[in-house]
Structure formats: C-alpha cells, structure tokens
Amino acid sequence: MLALWLCVLYSCAAGACASAAPGLLLLRGSAPPARRAHNPAALSKLLLLRAPGSKGQLSPEQENNDEDDDEDDDGGNNNSNGGAAADSPLSPISSFLNGSGTKRLPQAVIIGVKKGGTRALLEFLRVHPDVRAVGAEPHFFDRNYERGLTWYRDLMPRTLDGQITMEKTPSYFVTKEAPARISAMSKGTKLIVVVRDPVTRAISDYTQTLSKKPDIPTFESLTFKNRTTGLIDTSWSAIQIGIYAKHLENWLLYFPIGQILFVSGERLISDPAGELGRVQDFLGLKRIITDKHFYFNKTKGFPCLKKAEGSSKPHCLGKTKGRTHPNIDQEVVQRLREFYRPFNMKFYQMTGHDFGWD
After folding, report:
1. Are 48 and 89 spatial neighbours (Cβ–Cβ below 8 Å)?
2. CA neighbor of 18 nearest in space, from 8, 3, 27
3. Of the residues 103, 114, 115, 190, which is catalytic?
4. Cβ(205)–Cβ(115) below 8 Å
C-alpha cells in the first residue's frame, strides 16, 4: 500500500495523476477517476491538504488582514516560502517533503514600516535558500498576543538546521507593546525596519486608503488640524507613522541599536542587490542574492525578480503595488517636509545613517 501511495505522489509530480492507481485514490476518499482525470490541479490541492505541516496556518480572515499588502494581494503570483498552502503552487512531492524540519519561533522579524517596502524585502529574501518566512502577516505582537506563543510558532514554516525563520508585520513598529513582547519571546531577535521618506510614505498610505474608500476627505484636509495656522494633525496615522525617531525610542528601551537593521525603501528600489547584501550580512547569511536576481520593470517603476523562489518565471509584486499617487498641493508637501525635518535629523543621529530625505 505504501509503495502504491508513493507511486501516486511520483506520478502526480510528473503530471500523470489521472492514470496513477485510480483504485488507491478511491480508497483515500477522492472523487472517481473519471471526474478527476482532467483536473490535476484539484488533486494537487487535495494532496496539499494532506501534506505534513499543513495545519496551524492563518485563517482566510486573518490572511486578509495585511495592512501593508492590500490584503496580501500580489496579483495571484505570490511565491510563498512556507506560508499557507494557497500561497505557493508547490508540487505534491514538494508538499510531501515539506513536512521535514521543525517549526521554530522567528529569529528575525521585519517590524516596519507600513508602505515602506516590507513586502518587496520579504519577497526578495525568500530567494535565499536559508530563509523561510510565513506568507501572511501574523499580527501576533499587536492583535493576537493573547493566543500565545504556541499558536504563533505553529504559524511558522518548518526549517532545517542553519535556516532562519522570519515573519513581517509592519504595524509592530508603531505598536507600543510590541518591543516588550518580542523581547520577552527572545532578547536576541534580530529586527529589520524598512523606512522611506515620511512625506512620500504618507502619500502612499493615503493612496492605498483612497483605493478602498474613494469618498474619504482630501489628503490636504486630513493633514492639518487647522489649514489656516498650518498645524499638522499628528493623530492621523498616515502622519504619525512617519515620526520614526519617536517610535524608535520605544524599541531602544528593549533592544540595542546594533540589533536593529534600517533598510532604505528608496535604495530597495534603486539598488536592491546592495540593500539585500546588507540584510544578508545582518542575518549572518552568505551573500547569495545579487544583481543577477533582479531586473527593473519600467512599467511598474520598481525592480522585480528574474526568478522567484520555487518558480522559473519572472516575478513582480502585484497590481496593488506601485499605484500612481494623486497630485498633492505642493504647499502642503513643503509644509510636511518642514514638519518632519527635525524628526528626520534625530532619526539620522539615532541610527547613524543619513537617508537623504531633506
């Protein structure tokens, strides 16, 4: 029986599910071969559900809760490396073998920032064979902490010795309780923050919200408490997130600055291989991801992978990335630049890095 079952798995991997051991398929509770013969994808899904390690993933409602990713939509081409089964078109054999390894709490977390480029960074890192990352944003340290570390660990992909487990949830950076909670899990956790010009980030944040709620007020009206006096409304999340120095102070109460890597969202576009080199060094990984992995997509306006993990095809982030920003009153843009300047200067001093936003 075992030999027949392995034969079925091998045949499915070769695209011959329809003719492989139909009697065994019936014994396993599958539909009759006549109904399955022209639908190998359906059988692949069946085998995925039965593959070891397929339990403990986020529910559809939780997966659709990604603040930075427009409900994790990437145009249907998300080559996940260890997320929910639906994230990655793995072959049945690959899924069967994917049960090896151990689920571990993450040794590294991308903690922010929203609309900074966290999804791009995670997708690029997945190319590395020693990086395993959960696909959807777990939101454990801000929304699901009461579920406990066992629940959190069960979301993680299985890893072998020498591989790093990662996750990314951009809202952690602005969540007051997150630093203490991550420190309680492990004081040695490596943290990555992708930052971007706070003015551009705010406009991108607004653009995402506008795409979902076309009737919201204008960017200009939301920016000010009082347009006449020019007083900025720092209670608006699109503005508040960009005060990076303020949020970083909270993290430095629990983690040394050397344990946090700050990735430039701008350089992630202009020089992805260079930024990925820094990230690989920070994580203690061999520099495998290089220039040869990227090409610049002129239509989208950002770099894409020549070959994504687990695929031989080029891979770009989906239609929700690279939206055209609305035209914003330049007077408002200038006022915002003046507002952020002192916070930016402090952030440069704290991190020891000038991001060149002024």
Report:
1. no
2. 8
3. 115
4. yes
Q: How far apart are CA 177 and CA 162, in angstroms?
A: 30
Task: Cite the annotated binding site by residue number.
Answer: 115-119, 196, 204, 321-325
User: Could you tell me where the DSSP H helices lie in 252-293?
Assistant: 265-270, 272-282
List binding-site positions for 3'-phosphoadenylyl sulfate: 115-119, 196, 204, 321-325
In tens digits, the chain (358 residues) has pLDDT values of 555 555 444 444 444 443 433 333 333 333 333 333 334 344 333 333 333 333 344 443 343 345 555 433 333 333 334 433 333 333 343 444 456 899 999 999 999 999 999 999 999 999 999 999 998 999 999 999 999 999 999 999 999 999 999 999 999 999 999 999 999 999 999 999 999 999 999 999 999 999 999 999 999 999 999 888 889 999 999 999 999 999 999 999 999 999 999 999 999 999 999 999 999 999 999 999 997 888 677 666 668 888 655 555 555 765 545 568 788 999 999 999 999 999 999 999 999 999 999 8
Q: Is the dihedral of CA 261, 264, 268, 271 positive or negative?
A: negative
Residue 225 designated active-site: no
Q: Which domains does the chain have, with CATH numbers?
A: 102-197+243-324 (3.40.50.300)
